[in-house]
Amino acid sequence: MRVDILETQLFFRYFSDAIGKSDLLPVKGVSTDSRDIKKGDLFLAIKGENFDGSEFVEEAFSSGATYAIVQSGDENHNTFLVDDVISFIGKICSQWMNDFDGNVIAVTGSNGKTTTKDLISHILNKKGYDVSKTQGNFNTSIGVPLSIFSFPHDASQVYVLELGANRVGDIEYLSSMVKPDIGVITNISDAHLEGFGSIENITKEKKSILTHSKKGYYNEDIIEPFRGLVNHPLGKNNVFLKNASIACKVCEDFMSEGDSMRFDELLQDFTLPKGRGEACLLSNNITLIDDAYNANPESVKAAIDNLQSYQTEGKKIFVFGDMKELGKDEVKFHEEIANYCEEKIDTIICYGDLAKNTFNGSKNIPLSLHFNSKEALSNKVCNLLEKNDIVLLKGSRSMGLDSVAEDIKNYVQ
């Protein structure tokens, strides 16, 4: 990942202090990938279990990097050795945030982080606030600092940050770094169990954001959809309603007393991020719901409920790919999806080794199929489609069901 630094002089000051040198050149960008280096960049040679970025330092310099931060190898005039690259850049980010006088909203949770972050940003932009938000999936211990370094540092700014976690300690670390004015938990469920070990660990980790936030919101505390949101174009989507309701609750803190602008009006032109449940109407009145960005048991069940809520004379088709990182109970979680689909959908088409367990348990669904080939799956789905059908795609990102979505669009249109 790579970002351009907007406040180069500010970053230069923090970077110089962290290195302990005053004669450094300004840095224009920061990258963790030697292939993305631009002239004047700082290269972060991150070291992991199966790789060591220091092996690519020379490649980074050949591409124009000015400096490299490494945790193995030799130090010289443009290569600096530290104990841990991620901790080093985190310390710079902490200093950045300590000196930032604007407002910070941080969003975490098992599902809905990106959508909620985008909803909050959309509302505040509409109300005239200067908003900077996490781009893409820059929500990790390295992605969050890089995102922040690409932001302005003006006190009129609002930072809307997405905080992700794959293991115990991630949210605690990130929230202690950014110190949110408002901390948001979208929900807590069986996601990334492989890294956390138990739902209790997930709960403790997600809620750690509240200990570092001046004010906190938890989606579970919002029972009813916020004012007028059921009239929104996405009002049929219960997942959207939950995320939009907590976004509205957060943004109330920024509304002036007696503000007459309704949230449903502010959100009329909001569209869901790609792969996160947006419904697309194709020819022949066929509806495609692309929710293929990620998947865990709770988000899959919510997507199935959303599909069931549609009124149609056609078939309700569910294309389901493996849910990853669920730990020792991964088979059980996939079996449960088969039971959950009964009497809610007409067709389930499974893809992947784990989803084979869903297929095996789906005998009470009118049509159930399983494929090991994504090409064969796409061909079958396209051939099954008829007027008024609705097809939902849901699976972990590594299953690549977004390509099936494109195949369907190309076939139908």
Q: How many structural domains can be distinguished in the coordinates?
A: 3
Oligomer: single chain
For the biggest sheet, the summary is: 6 strands, mixed
Instruction: Kindly state the number of beta strands.
Output: 16
Instruction: Estimate the helix proportion, in percent.
Output: 25-40%
- Taking all Cα atoms into account, the compactness measure Rg is 23 Å
* The CATH H-level homologous superfamily of the largest domain: Mur-like, catalytic domain
Q: Briefly, what CATH class of the largest domain? A: Alpha Beta
**Separation of the first and last Cα atoms:** 35 Å
- CATH-defined topology of the largest domain: UDP-N-acetylmuramoyl-L-alanine:D-glutamate ligase
What is the SS-derived class?
Answer: alpha/beta
**Corresponding CATH architecture of the largest domain:** 3-Layer(aba) Sandwich
Query: What is the averaged pLDDT score?
Result: 91
- Strand order in the sheet with the most strands: 11-12-16-13-14-15
Q: What is the strand and helix layout of this fold?
A:
Layout: E1 2-4, H1 8-19, E2 29-31, E3 41-44, H2 57-62, E4 67-70, E5 79-81, H3 85-98, E6 103-108, H4 113-126, E7 130-133, H5 143-149, E8 157-162, H6 170-178, E9 182-185, H7 193-196, H8 199-211, E10 215-218, H9 238-251, H10 263-266, E11 278-281, E12 287-291, H11 297-309, E13 316-321, H12 330-341, E14 347-351, H13 355-360, E15 367-371, H14 374-384, E16 390-394, H15 402-412
Parallel strand pairs: 2-3, 3-4, 4-5, 6-8, 6-9, 7-8, 9-10, 12-16, 13-14, 13-16, 14-15
Antiparallel strand pairs: 1-2, 11-12
